[in-house]
Each structure stands twice: as C-alpha cells, then as structure tokens.
Amino acid sequence: MSTHSGGTTAAPSLHWRVVAISIGAALGGFLFGFDSSVINGAVDSIQGEFELSETFTGFAVASALLGCAVGAWFAGQIANRYGRIRVMWISAIAFFVSAIGTGFAFGVWDLIGWRIVGGLAIGAASVIAPAYIAEVAPATFRGRLGSLQQMAIVLGIFAALLSDEMLAGINGGADAEIWFGLEAWRWMFLVAAIPALIYGVAAIRLPESPRYLVSKGDEAAAAKILVEYTGETQADHKIAQIRFSLGTDKPRALADLKGNAWGLHPIVWTGILLSVFQQFVGINVIFYYSTTLWKSVGFDESDAFTTSTISSITNIVVTIIAIMLVDRIGRRLLLMIGSAGMTVSLAIMAVAFANATVDAAGDTQLVGAWATTALIAANAFIVFFGASWGPVVWVLLGEMFPNRIRATALAVAAAAQWLANFLITVSFPALADLSLVVAYGFYATMAALSFFFVLTRVPETRGVELEDMRDDADAHTVENAAEGV
C-alpha cells in the first residue's frame, strides 16, 4: 500500500460535529460489547436451567458469533446498496428483538436462535461503525475517532458486567427470581433492549457517509456534509478525489476483492489475518468466561463478578490511552508493543495454571502467590490488548482498504474475525477441561506470531487520506492520476 498523499487539500480541523456523529455511530459498538458479554453472568444459570454439557454450553455461549459472522458478511453489500445509516437501523431493530426474545426463551434452541439474531446485529454493527467513522473523519484525527468504536465496545462490556452483577445481587444469585416471576439471568438479556432503542434513535439523526453519497451521484449532499460536519475547506476538490478513488460506476461486489494472492488482494488478506490474530490471542475468553473462570480458581460468585468488573474498567482506561497515542506514534508500533506484552502476560498465566492444584471435586484451584500472579497477568494482558490490538485493529479495518472495496473488504475481514471468535469461544470449555496450560500456551503462541505478522505485513496508515489507500497493484496508477485531479 502506498502512503503518498495526492492533492493539495488543506488539513481540516477537528469539528465538534464530526465528533458527535462518530460517537453516534460508535453506539453500535456499545451494543456490540453489551450484547456479546451480557451472557457472562448467565452462563452457569443457562447450563443449569437447560441441563447442558460443557461442550453444549460452549456452543450456546458462542452461538451468537455465528450470527455475527453472517451479519458482518452481508453488511458490506447492504451498506453499498442502501447506505451506511440503513444498516444501523436494521442493527438496532435486530438488537431490540434479540434482547426480548432471549429474555423470554423457553428452551435452549429458542435461546440460541434469539442469540443468533442478536449476532446478526452485532456483526453488522462491527462493520458499519468503523467504516462510517473512517469515511467522515479527517485523516489527522481518524485514529482517535476510529478508536471510539473500541471505547464503546469496552463501555458496553463494562455496562453488561455491572448490570449482571447488580441483577444477580438483588436476590442472591443469577438463578433467583426478581421481577414478574423472571430469574435474574433473563433480566440480564432484557435490559439490552434499552441501549438498542437509544442506538436506533441516534442512527436516525446521523448524516449519510459522503463517500457513499458520491458513489450514488449525490455530490451536492456529500459536499454539504463534508463542509458542515468534517470542516472540509475544499469540498469540490475532495469530492473529485473521492470520485476518482471509487473507480468505475459498476455495483460493488465480492468479486472486487479478487487478486493474485490466493484469490484475494494482498491488503484483503492482511485485514483478514489482523482479525484472526485479534481473536486467537484469547481476549474474549476473559470476557465471556471470566466469571466462571475465576470461580473455578477459588473466588465465590460475588468475588468473580467483581474481578470481571475490575478487568473491564482496566480495559476502559487503557483504551483511553490508545486513543491518545494512535495518531501520535502510529498503528504499527502500538500493535507490536501490544503483541510483545500479550505474549509475556499469557505465558505467565500458562505457568501459573501449570502450578494449580485439583480439589476433591476435580476443579482447578490456584492457591497462594499463584492466584495473585494469575490475576495480575490476566489484567496485564487486558492492558496490552486494550491499548493496542483492541482499538487499533478496528481503526485499521475502517481505513486501510481502497474506497472502491472498503465496505466489502471490511465485511469479509469482520466475518473472519467473528468466525475466529467463535472457534476460540466454543473451544475454550473443552480446552480448559483438558488443561488451562494448553489453552493459555496456545494464546501466547498466537500473540508472539502476531508481532512478526505486524512487522512484515501491516502498513502504517497514520495521516494518510482514504483516497490514497490502495492495494499494491494499482498504487502507481492512482498516485499519478491523483496529481491531476
């Protein structure tokens, strides 16, 4: 990918309106985090309620991720045809329906079905928020604004964990009935309907992406948005650049991603592998199974909830650090620092669990210094992930692809991310049953490999205009032509 900046457009300042609409789009990330993590406090109750095996419990927890992969896969095509805002509306409706259906589920297959509906919404939101924010943000501030997606995700995770803890504490546990004859674990899902409504209302008020409007020939509306929301001082010149970077007027499709490297453009493979590594380091094991995990190593239910909540607060704090750094030191350096830190912390967790004992019931127990060591290492892992791979991958996926394939390529990369998430999530109960040493050893290995992947394959995109993002095959053509726009 070339990092040449064509044209002479003056760098716009950060307008408060672009911050506002970026926050509005990032609300999808809040629902993404909330809906994917709310099951954390309900895992044991669901297993007991429906008498599930460990393997089937893992599938029930991970079922939403299948919907996520499908939602992400189709979101790009829908966004290209009907616009970014309509995808947000659809997501909000699916979020709301899923929250109600899951809360009133009468059987495990019913619950899984509603979780998959929620997954469709999560997958679509995971594509559209970073794409939209990247398309409305000035290049100078795009990293910080793009990181709002991850901030919203971790705030959603925190809200879900806090909500779970409060509901479980009303009558002494997630299994206890609290209101209208419904158990606390059902209310954990029902409360997700509230942020779904807020997201839907916010989406109605957002302007459409100027790059989508140019693709549909509505350049007057695109120019108005560029001036009023992004502070663009040379809207006509920017629109000419956008029009040129979009290429032909033919409808966007998956076929646009074809290239010479294993059937896809190299930059598309880079996006896919970024997504896979983000999940294969095992971050969602911490958030999906943290309560069950810490209970298994000696904490009671209340302590386990508290530990999970502390981990989530840690994630919020380090995401703020990432927002401050991403446009200053760049994407690549942050990722490599994160990879190194995750490798060490995950290796320490593996060593800690290698020194665990097994009680009379066959449950893993960490005692003494090893329990403290594991807790510190887990939070160190969250720190390094939250300050690097958490937000930076979403920033890169939103900005690294050429305009003509952005929504479609992002959809494919996000679908790969959700499939990787599914594989990690569904395999963890069985891996933990076999050996937590093996589980965390695998995640540590993936973290180490991710360092070398970034070093050799990931481009630096800090400060590069979206119109200058392109794959190697057409870089020189666009670069030369852009000078005459």
Secondary structure class reads mainly alpha
Number of helices: 21
CATH topology: Growth Hormone, Chain: A
Order of helices and strands: HHHHHHHEEHHHHHHHHHEEHHHHH
Cα radius of gyration in angstroms: 22 Å
Helicity, in percent? over 70%
Q: Could you give a short account of the major beta sheet? A: 2 strands, antiparallel
Q: What is the correct CATH architecture?
A: Up-down Bundle
Name the CATH homologous superfamily: MFS general substrate transporter like domains
* Strand content bin: under 5%
How are the strands of the biggest sheet laid out side by side? Answer: 1-2
**Which CATH class applies here?**
Mainly Alpha
Outline the low-pLDDT stretches: 1-12, 473-485
How many domain regions?
1
- Oligomer type: single chain
